[in-house]
Design brief:
- This protein has 309 residues and is α/β, with parallel strands linked by helices.
- It has two domains: 124 residues, ATPase, nucleotide binding domain (Nucleotidyltransferase, domain 5, 2-Layer Sandwich), CATH 3.30.420; 159 residues, 2-Layer Sandwich (Nucleotidyltransferase, domain 5).
- It has eight helices and 15 strands.
- The strands form four sheets. It has a six-stranded mixed beta sheet with strand order 10-9-8-13-15-14. A five-stranded mixed beta sheet has the order 3-2-1-4-7, sandwiched between helices.
- The longest helix has 25 residues.
- The protein starts with 5 loop residues before the first strand and ends in an 8-residue tail after the last helix.
- Belongs to the ROK (NagC/XylR) family.
Length: 309
């Protein structure tokens, strides 16, 4: 049980930076967002020590009137999130943590930090999930998904993240949803969905359509979106086709899960007006402005009574 004066230390771990916040029961950040280096290429012991230090640093910012319920972490996959075991390998980030039970390692380390021993509302606890799941929990508890009982939540950026929510709970199994709620690895056309519904999917489609002058690097999709907004016909067609592909991958799950809304987040969602209308398959679409803040808010929900199915 989580009490109203309990807070959660929330972390969104990326390959370059770690974003952190102290989240209250209403989903608000009680202190300004903190940003730390991820140090993703370091050795196992250095990384574990680094993460424990970040937790300790955030804990020092908690006011005396609040108790710490736990530490919620959005961590990049692949991972066994239920057990907290990192399965990341060959991605040039956190390779040294492959096979490490992050939940156990970090719980053991923060339990012996002298200054924190009296700050926990219960025993020290660490929970780990992927960023799309935490985005979904955060949006459905405190954001665009709050009015709805059933939602499909998507993050579109470097990759394609997804989560299915019913009554504030992650739905990870059953005939209505893909295994673990993950769409990215399902087969689609000549590859898998992640190959098409992602930043590289848009860049690949631009190449197939013969669009020239696309810069390499992180500004590629932003550049294409600007061209579409300036009325360049082929760029407009590019995003329309991307939207058609998104609808194509979602329709089977709209029919099986019957969501009341689709919530979009991630970098590509900033250009959602170019590839989705107000609805996909008659289901209203809502766009969230900030993936990281939503993921931090979702970390709080990991310690609420609502769980996962």
């Amino acid at each position: 049980m989580i009490r109203m004066d309990d807070i959660v230390l929330a972390f969104d771990v990326g390959g370059t930076y770690v974003k952190a916040g102290i989240v209250g029961s209403d989903g608000s950040l009680l202190e300004p967002l903190s940003i730390y280096p991820a140090r993703a290429g370091e050795a196992k012991e250095e990384l574990l020590r680094h993460f424990a230090d970040l937790i300790a640093d955030q804990a020092k910012r908690v006011s005396a009137g609040n108790r710490i319920r736990g530490v919620g972490i959005a961590f990049p996959g692949p991972c066994d999130y239920e057990r907290g075991i990192c399965r990341t390998r060959g991605l040039n980030k956190f390779d040294a943590l492959y096979g490490v039970n992050l939940k156990e390692e970090l719980t053991n380390r923060i339990a012996i930090i002298p200054g924190l021993r009296d700050r926990w509302s219960d025993a020290p606890a660490v929970a780990i999930e992927n960023d799309a799941a935490l985005f979904a929990l955060g949006e459905c508890a405190f954001g665009a998904g709050h009015p709805y009982e059933k939602t499909i939540c998507l993050t579109i950026g470097t990759g394609f993240g997804s989560a299915f929510i019913r009554k504030g709970r992650l739905i990870k199994s059953g005939h209505e949803v893909p295994p673990s709620g993950w769409l990215y690895r399902l087969p689609y056309r000549s590859g898998m969905m992640d190959d098409y519904i992602s930043r590289r999917g848009i860049v690949r489609l631009a190449g197939e359509m013969g669009i020239k002058g696309v810069p390499s690097g992180e500004e590629d999709v932003k550049h294409l979106a600007q061209r579409a907004r300036f009325g360049e016909g082929i760029a407009v067609q590019l995003f329309r086709e991307f939207g058609h592909r998104l609808e194509e991958v979602l329709l089977p799950f709209i029919q099986s899960f019957r969501p009341e809304a689709i919530i979009l987040g991630g970098q590509i969602a900033q250009s959602a007006d170019l590839f989705v209308s107000e609805a996909i398959g008659s289901v209203p679409v809502r766009v969230s402005p900030d993936l990281s803040v939503s993921a931090l808010r979702g970390a709080y929900r990991l310690f609420a009574e609502d769980g996962k199915d």
